[in-house]
Amino acid sequence: MKYSTNQQTRRGRGPARRIGRSLALVLPVVLVLSGTLAVTRVNWSGDPSNSVLTASDATLSDAKPAAPRAPQDVLRDQLLTELQEKNPGVALTHLQEAVNGHPKLAGHCASIARALGRAAVRVYGPTRAQSYARPVCDTSFASGVAAAHS
Question: Is the pTM of this model over 0.70?
């Protein structure tokens, strides 16, 4: 009888003991990591410009004016908006007109057309987006559609 009573006692403590041991191993690691992360977030330099700020801490008076945007970035954003409001065909026509009017944009034409192709897939789906493809900037629009679809 002594043997069976001893086995029941061991079974009763088994899961609780395993959980306790697991916590004893994991809890110190969690505490050390959370303490380390807390220390890295503190501004130790004393310089307020290096401090970590949340969005609510920033004020308009401290905000720096935005750097002027490159013409190709402005054009890309305008064409992406136009793609969503109208259709990819209109955006591609305006891209071709912009490149014809400003030859410096020709170097960026392929990347803009690929961005339009990827956006067209998100808005219209791959089949309908591909239907708008035309030979603007060496078919970069079509390669953007293919890249977004695969």
Answer: no
